[in-house]
User: Fold these one by one.
Assistant:
Number 1:
Amino acid sequence: MEPDEPPKYGRTIVSLLESFSQVRYLPSVAGILEDTCQIERRIKMIANPDRKSRAQSLGVMLLLAVLACVVLTNAYAAKADFIFGTPTNLGPTINGPDDLLGACISYDRLALYFCSDRPGGYGGYDLWMTTRPTIDDDWREPVNLGPNVNSQYDCMAPSISADGLTLYFSDYDYGKYPASSVDIWMVTRETKDAAWSAPVNVGQPVNWEGGDNSPNISADGLSLYFASSGRRGDPGAPAWYDLWVATRTTTNDEWGAPENLGPTVNSQLIDSCPSISADGLLLYFMSDRAGGQGDFDIWMTSRVTEEHDWSPPVNLGPVVNSSAKDLFPSISVNGSTLYFCSSRPGGYGGFYGDIWQVSIEPVVDFNSDGNIDTDDLLILIGYWGQNEPLCDIGPTPFGDGIVDIKDLEVFMSYWEKENMPEAPEEEL
């Protein structure tokens, strides 16, 4: 095989193996589905330390994983499948003594939109943007989106579309402030280098006479999540904010009637500032419901597919949430970084705090022995084809409801970091 072919070979074998629920002796699969002694011998041969290249080593481990499929059982206990890193403040270039009301990371992770009442704006709160050349560079000095976008009132909670050409946000209805409540608005541009259009009210049925704010557009542009106040039509319900979603068939269609995310997700208090993951299966939001760490916490609900119901929300815990206010979550497109606002100690100032970020890492040390090794690989393969949270780490970091090739690929990326020697300079 060519140097880049072993991983493809391993994936092909995995696909073939998925067709068999038990060992079968067929001439067409000789050398793949064998008895235990043959498999043991093959694994020993494959694991020979005389490896020729980094690509070949990856292929070896993929093949080892496949062969282990036919001899392992499901004898391991599940535990949490992700951990958070240490939250870090984005620093004084972005943060300061002023208030911040919402942040949104772009899909290429090179632009961060946020709301601030810092000097140099046009109203109470304005929309600002900071950029960086690469994801490894520092954020540059923020720039105001200008008077064409920002009003004399409060532009808040931005959400940028996947293509970077539509920006949703909330503001008061121009010309009616303060009599009217907050609505959801949008601006568009032809290219990322072009100027933004004048704001357009998203209109009914998304907006109504109550308050509608904190929009968040899905990756495909077909779902708009937002918070709305007093809209349930239940005379006995308090007029707190609930999470809603409006959908459309194509991006050229009008929005349909919004649907409440229901009592499983929404509480009797404030549920607001949604952030939907790129695959549409995870929804982060802020809430002051019971069970939190402070005034407001960040919570998460999930679903197996977009056709399934949302699960009961879980609090992200004391690493992300503090005894202060933790607000306005925004998840990166790859699900590996959560941006949020927090007034926790260690910041630079305003009432609503600073913008922070925290990494989200899948747990690949399945047996908790401090190593990422073959033992963990065998555990993953033991749950192949099952809905097992312990090993359901792909797509990173929360999985998709089944242990399969996606999880194997994520595991191998971490195994490779810990176990693979550096490639010779001539191979880089």
Number 2:
Amino acid sequence: MYVCGATVQSEPHLGHGRFAVVFDVIRRYLEWQGYEVTYVRNITDVEDKIIAAAKERGVSTSELVPEMIERWNKAYAGLGVRPPTVEPRATDHIPEMIELIQKLVDGGLAYPMEGDVYFSVRNFDRYGRLSGQSLDDLISGARVEAAEHKRDPLDFALWKAAKPGEPSWESPWGGGRPGWHIECSAMSLQYLGSDFDIHGGGADLIFPHHENEIAQAEGAGSPFARYWLHNGLVGLTGEKMSKSTGVLIALSDALRRYPGMGIRLFYLRAHYRSPLEHSEEMLEDASSAYRRLWAFRRRVPHPPEGEPDQAVLARFREAMDDDFNTPEALGVLFDVVREGNRAVDTGASATTWAATFDEMVEVLGLQEPEGGLDDLVDELAARADRFGLSTSDPRRIVEELLELRERARADRAFTESDQIRDSLEDLGIAVEDTPDGVRWHRR
């Protein structure tokens, strides 16, 4: 599986997080089904937008790129996205790109022109089949690269002649750098070979990027991806989230305001191909739903002693087999939570429900945040000593502290009650007073 990853001219926004989560879940599900998955997700570290962003900040691209890669990796981690099998950088694969371009020139599908090299779209008769449009439709309806010396408006750059102050590599056509589209063709073929299984990316990449990838690879004689998967875009007030529209919510800002798993659940509540409208209310609701999931799981010992319910997992599998239908799969998961809570409330065993829950959240990646309560044993033990408790179990300490708080409130000892709550809040444990009693969760 090859997925178009980050172009690192800036830090990721909320829309970028969706593709990362979508393909992380697809990978997890295929592995759960028994497949061995080689997942390649590239980094574009040389491109017009990167050069422009570096100039705007007054730094070199070699300074900008590592900083942005670090920010993207931090965002991926915050969303629970596992690292890919391979994460190639474009600048490490210039020779492979030059070799692929040379094949296209030799085959009559590309032509050099004043230090640039262009792909001749009209010489590739299968162009347009991914987007389902004719060449005339594509020319009239799409933004195409401007260049005075192209033979045809739809031709696109494979190699760009060097300009002063820009990154440059030597090639048979002179110094320069690769065009954006050739990068992914060369790197996917390098790591997965021809005729690989899945190619993914955002819906905005269908044309021209993925259309051009097909033309480059197949034009050079390499059968390309068998299946194309494109996630819908995240928007706000009807506009896609991108730098060009000015509709941007930095993913780092969202991760400061909401739990990463809450944002992940927000993405998974819509089918991956559907557009997804963002709102603060939707993120709040998804975060609350995530807390409800793990509020159930904390009621059953870790790890559970029971085995998963295979009939329930079959329902989950049926949903995911239907084009990775995560909204349906989440419905199964919340059914499990409801039945599990009912079992606990009535004194019945909930271990089967917990084991089933564990299987599904592993596939969906909706894990309890790293640094569970067991990491807080020392801090909680200090609170236990402070309030005269004898237990050493961290979860029981929280429960007993909350019982002390309830007694203090009943006695109208509000100062002591507030001290207990503040003590827990300092450790990142949120306390909620609800009509059904006190609930708590780890922030």
